[in-house]
């Protein structure tokens, strides 16, 4: 910024300083304005080149955008995202508390769960659950040391939808465990000690005192995980589950309109992630107000 000096001196005895007054004039941001203009031109050129390119098959995109098969796949994708995130949050909370336990056995089991499911690709886990019948042809349930029991063929019990829920849910639980554990650790330990000094049990102190204060730390990464799960669910197409991507693949394998059908899938993914981002923003604002009100 530039500095302009005013030569007028304050009258003697007026109580004001005899030093010259300084006026700050911000420098003109010509570089920023030029960059904004160039970026705007580049964006307009990009949109015009895409919109005017007939090879994208925009007429085919409009034809299949609301196709019943695409909408059915979108419904399954959203359903999988909700179910697996619920499983992930529940398992994440349980294993986060277990990992923070002072009991070496409990914390070791939690650490082993997190280590395994975070260390192996989710695609491998999906294929493993889908082919579980090759390892265990039958799954048996019974009371130990008694003759009572029952067995079910594994391929009957582990359907593609079950394999998808198990693979995605267990994998998400490992990631959510670390997110929730970091949120719990962000709360001052004195909060738990104060709660127990008032007669609260450890469980009640966790749910009434610690978790509400940890939520502002937990919510943002949980929202990102939810958006990531929406897109990760497309991996279930490898086990022939008719999600959004698999539905698009089924259609373009018949009419050979690969690019337009992939654009249709991308448009629905973009819409779903935009809605999830808006919901995440609203939840973050809610907990931010709660935190500001308590401080």
Précis, in short:
By secondary structure, the protein is mainly alpha-helical. It is built from 11 helices and 4 strands. Among the domains are: 78-233, MetI-like (MetI-like fold, Orthogonal Bundle); 243-289, no CATH class.
Descriptive overview:
The chain is mainly alpha-helical and 295 residues long. Among the domains are: 156 residues, MetI-like fold (Orthogonal Bundle); 47 residues, no CATH class. The protein is built from 11 helices and 4 strands. The strands form 2 sheets. A two-stranded antiparallel sheet has the order 1-2. A hairpin with a 6-residue loop joins strand 3 and strand 4. Helix 3 packs across helix 7 and helix 3 packs antiparallel against helix 9. It is flat. The two termini are 37 Å apart. The N terminus is likely disordered.
Count of helical stretches: 11
CATH homologous superfamily caption of the domain at 78-233: MetI-like
* Main sheet: strand order: 1-2
| Category from helices, strands and their pairing | mainly alpha
- CATH fold field value of the domain at 78-233: MetI-like fold
Overall residue-averaged pLDDT value:
84
The CATH architecture term of the domain at 78-233 is Orthogonal Bundle
Low-pLDDT stretches are 1-10
Helix content: 55-70%
Task: For the record, give the distance between the C-alpha atoms at the N and C termini, rounded to a whole number.
Answer: 37 Å
């Amino acid at each position: 910024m530039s500095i302009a000096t005013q030569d007028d001196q304050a009258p003697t005895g007026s109580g004001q300083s005899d030093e010259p007054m300084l006026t700050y004039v911000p420098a003109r941001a010509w570089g920023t304005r030029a960059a904004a203009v160039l970026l705007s031109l580049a964006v307009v050129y990009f949109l015009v080149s895409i919109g005017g390119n007939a090879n994208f098959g925009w007429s085919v995109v409009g034809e299949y955008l609301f196709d019943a098969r695409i909408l059915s796949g979108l419904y399954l994708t959203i359903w999988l995202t909700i179910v697996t995130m619920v499983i992930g949050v529940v398992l994440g909370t349980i294993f986060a508390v277990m990992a923070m336990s002072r009991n070496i056995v409990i914390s070791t089991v939690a650490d082993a769960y997190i280590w395994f499911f975070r260390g192996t690709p989710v695609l491998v886990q999906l294929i493993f659950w889908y082919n579980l019948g090759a390892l265990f042809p039958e799954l048996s349930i019974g009371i130990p040391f008694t003759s009572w029991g029952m067995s079910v063929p594994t391929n009957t019990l582990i359907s593609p939808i079950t394999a998808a829920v198990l693979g995605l849910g267990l994998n998400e639980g490992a990631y959510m465990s670390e997110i929730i554990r970091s949120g719990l650790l962000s709360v001052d330990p004195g909060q738990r000690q104060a709660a127990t000094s008032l007669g609260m049990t450890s469980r009640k102190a966790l749910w009434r005192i610690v978790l509400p204060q940890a939520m502002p730390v937990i919510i943002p990464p949980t929202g990102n995980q939810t958006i990531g799960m929406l897109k990760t669910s497309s991996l279930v197409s490898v086990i022939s589950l008719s999600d959004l991507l698999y539905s698009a693949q089924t259609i373009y394998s018949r009419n050979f309109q690969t690019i337009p059908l992939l654009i249709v899938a991308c448009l629905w993914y973009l819409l779903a992630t935009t809605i999830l981002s808006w919901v995440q923003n609203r939840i973050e604002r809610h907990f931010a107000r709660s935190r500001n009100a308590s401080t």
